[in-house]
User: What shape does this take?
Amino acid sequence: MNKLLKTYNFSNFKITKGNGSYLYTSKNEKLLDFSAGVAVNSLGYNHPIIKKSLQDQIKTGISHLSGSQIHEFKIKLSEILSKESNKGDVFFSNSGAESIEAALKIARNYGNQSKKDEIIAMTSSFHGRTIGALSVGSNKNYKSHIGPVPGKVKFCEFNNSKHLKKLINKKTVAIIIEFVQGDGGINICTKEFAKTIKKYVKKEKSY
Assistant: This one.
């Protein structure tokens, strides 16, 4: 009997294996996987490099370490990520929602020092189901029956630079955006809107 808490509309078939972009059911039906594990399995299933890395790691006897413990691959990956992004420090989290929570904490910490406390999020957005992440998500159904979520969040119409301009003020501490909205319906951020956000971020100190 399925004793899983109904947080999803579960599929009516069971997955037994995967290869490339395909999943296979217990009845050996071959399915093309369009969700990719909600966009986290971008290299597909049974990828030879990932498979070898996992096998090599299991041979060491270590399947998990806490965040406070250092491992050579943790150091190597952090260096690569830093080099390929903004050259800053790297924070490894357990989920997307935890990453969002960390980003909100960092923004609010900065805001406390600079007296800025308003966050601009986007319509049709989704950032996770934790309380903080829900505060910057636009779907009201996810926020029902759980009490108040953190406030001082304004919602900008996705890809609307004029609306963004109206919302930004001297109290704005952060803008949060998915460049490709998933839960909202696969909406893609335009280059023009991305450039507008970048422009305001560069001018942040003038507000």
User: Anything to note?
Assistant: The CA atoms of residues 88 and 180 lie 23 Å apart.
